[in-house]
Amino acid sequence: MHFAPDTEDTLAFTVALANTAAGATRTGTDELANVAQLSLLLSRFQYSGRIDHDELELADVRQTRGRLRSVWMLERDLAVTEVNAMLSDAGALPHLVRHDDSDWHLHATDPAAPLAERIRVEVSLALVDVIRTDENGRLRACAAHDCEGILVDLSRNGSKRFCSIRCGNRMNMIAFRERALLD
Question: How far, CA to CA in Å, does 148 sit from each of 9, 41, 57, 138?
Fold first, then answer.
């Protein structure tokens, strides 16, 4: 499955952001607990515009993280309602932009808008592509029973089940041990 490059980038960012929540991380702790961790996450992705690097922004992004984790798991028609609400709340006006090393892509907020608002709108625009192509099944929870991570499956055959190689290896080892006990 292939979406536009900016959609795929935004979906990857959403997974990275959502998987900073305790229960979805390798450490089991919240990996978005301070401004420095938010800055580190943002440095891995190309976010332009206003970034305040303060506690208020961190709190807003953490709240957005929860909202995005929720919408990720909604069935298609319910996701539409939430996506429309996020776009409406921001007064989104989609427009094409090109900056830094990025080719033409969509933005729908003022670059001076708060970071969390821009995140919600960019993710909403990406989810519009997912919904329009009826590919919500590509947005999943990790199949590892002890993980709360999410994933986006961009593989050709749609068979990705785990949020990380670590989760996949761990579940394969558990299954192997269970089979060995039965033999």
Answer: 21, 19, 24, 16
What rounded mean pLDDT belongs to the chain? 93
Global pTM exceeds 0.70:
yes
Query: Are 22 and 28 contacting, i.e. CB atoms less than 8 angstroms apart?
Result: yes
> Taking the alpha carbons of 171, 173, 174, 178 in that order, is the dihedral positive or negative?
positive
| Residue 19: closest CA among 170, 166, 173 | 166
Check if the beta carbon of residue 49 is closer than 8 Å to that of residue 118.
Answer: yes
Q: Which residue has the tokens 């929540």?
A: 21
Q: How many Å apart are CA 174 and CA 161, to the nearest integer? A: 15
The C-alpha atoms of residue 42 and residue 51 are separated, in whole angstroms, by 9
Query: Could you give the CA distance from residue 20 to residue 6 in angstroms, rounded to a whole number?
Result: 21
Contact assessment for residue 127 and residue 144, using Cβ atoms and an 8 Å cutoff: no
pLDDT band with cut points at 50, 70 and 90 for residue 181:
confident
Please name the residue that has the structure tokens 């068979």. 159
Distance CA 87, CA 23 (A): 29
